[in-house]
Structure to design on (431 residues):
């Protein structure tokens, strides 16, 4: 591995890295909400999902402008399951197996990460999203019932939905694109990680970073101990102007590392006041743990990692080839996850993916641990023994690891690596 030149972490990233990121963005997103995957998949890298499933995957939120974020959720309808549900509703005989959603549900997540979900922490987890999702409470109730989680309703006060100023009315306009899928995914993952936590949804009026920053400040003001952000954009001088909104001592802030693989760092995950969450793929094994994980990479999208050109390296991070802040810090499952969204085209059950799933899950684990009001940024680095080290896979979408010299910035290694950070939760000891 050739040692990179010694440059200031505040200088812009090399032109070739920016070019790589631009290429990944083109490969990862198509216009008009069109399906992604089949056309963008390199011939030399087979997808771990079927061709049919990959071809149906869509980006929930398309890029909207240089001063706006996009959410990182990917989704596809569970066609067979939804047809079976419709057949049952029409009175035709259908087996229970046929109507069972596919993928890793809340019980699987609990088992894979050894989460003590019977705890009842006095904690609220906030998710910050854009636009309104009118069907959210009903859809969350269906998800939680499917996986035998206790109810969390607006009537009981467990679920609270407010606008970016903290008011119950008026809520923003209904989502004109795909933020509804994102918001439904977020509350589902918080529910899986901490089923007895309260959930606060703060809906920004738009995906503009200024509105999202207002919503972030509101989430902290209303008492959420952990705040999840499943959105971002390539870091720029403009995004950095909103950094103060993601600095709230006494509150843990988690952000998705992005879905474009190795490239420029994403805001707000690039901030040292934020825990950056990368993504993995889960599978069952006969090991003592019963599960295996690798870096999330499905050929057209992968766990984001990057070396910040704007943010200096924090004292608790010691990787040697990035002079600035390196993403990610930790990771969690980002693929093959079922959620219930009654308004989604082809729904109601969807198969979703993206580091959008990892951020709310990690935020829920922080709340479950009961330390979110006192831990400092970088806490995980002093408690890495309570994480499952991920040592397999790369998030280099184009060259299989060559883009970073097959080193830790884009290839999973023993110990810290940028695609999956220090690893995934092994209980709550690292949080």
């Amino acid at each position: 591995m050739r040692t990179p030149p010694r440059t200031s972490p505040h200088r812009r990233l090399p032109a070739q890295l920016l070019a790589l990121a631009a290429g990944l963005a083109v490969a990862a997103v198509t216009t008009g909400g069109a399906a992604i995957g089949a056309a963008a998949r390199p011939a030399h890298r087979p997808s771990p999902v079927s061709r049919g499933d990959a071809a149906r995957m869509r980006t929930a939120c398309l890029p909207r402008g240089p001063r706006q974020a996009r959410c990182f959720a990917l989704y596809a309808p569970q066609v067979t399951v939804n047809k079976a549900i419709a057949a049952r509703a029409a009175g035709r005989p259908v087996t229970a197996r046929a109507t069972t959603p596919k993928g890793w549900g809340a019980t699987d997540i609990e088992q894979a990460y050894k989460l003590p979900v019977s705890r009842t922490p006095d904690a609220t987890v906030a998710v910050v999203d854009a636009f309104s999702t009118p069907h959210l409470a009903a859809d969350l109730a269906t998800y939680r019932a499917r996986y035998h989680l206790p109810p969390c309703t607006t009537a009981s006060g467990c679920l609270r939905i407010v606008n970016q100023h903290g008011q119950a009315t008026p809520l923003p306009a209904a989502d004109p694109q795909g933020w509804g899928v994102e918001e439904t995914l977020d509350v589902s993952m918080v529910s899986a990680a901490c089923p007895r936590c309260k959930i606060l949804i703060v809906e920004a009026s738009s995906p503009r970073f200024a509105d999202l920053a207002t919503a972030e400040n509101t989430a902290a003001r209303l008492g959420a101990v952990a705040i999840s952000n499943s959105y971002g954009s390539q870091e720029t001088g403009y995004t950095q102007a909103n950094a103060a909104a993601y600095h709230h001592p006494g509150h843990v802030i988690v952000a998705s590392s992005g879905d474009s693989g190795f490239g420029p760092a994403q805001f707000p995950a690039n901030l040292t006041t934020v825990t950056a969450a990368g993504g993995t793929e889960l599978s069952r094994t006969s090991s003592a743990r019963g599960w295996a994980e690798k870096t999330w990479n499905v050929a057209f999208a992968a766990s984001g990692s990057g070396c910040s050109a704007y943010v200096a390296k924090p004292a608790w991070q010691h990787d040697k080839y990035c002079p600035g802040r390196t993403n990610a810090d930790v990771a969690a499952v980002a693929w093959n996850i079922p959620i219930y969204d009654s308004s989604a085209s082809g729904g109601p059950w969807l198969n979703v993916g993206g580091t959008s799933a990892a951020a709310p899950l990690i935020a829920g684990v922080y709340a479950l641990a009961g330390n979110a009001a006192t831990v400092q940024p970088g806490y995980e680095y002093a408690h890495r023994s309570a994480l499952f080290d991920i040592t397999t896979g790369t998030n280099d979408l184009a060259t299989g690891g060559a883009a970073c010299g097959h080193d830790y910035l884009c290839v999973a290694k023993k110990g810290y690596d940028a695609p999956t950070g220090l690893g995934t939760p092994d209980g709550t000891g690292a949080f």
Q: What stands out?
A: The first strand starts at residue 58 and ends at 59. The chain has nine helices and 20 strands. Confidence is low (pLDDT under 50) at residues 1-51. The first helix runs from residue 15 to 28.
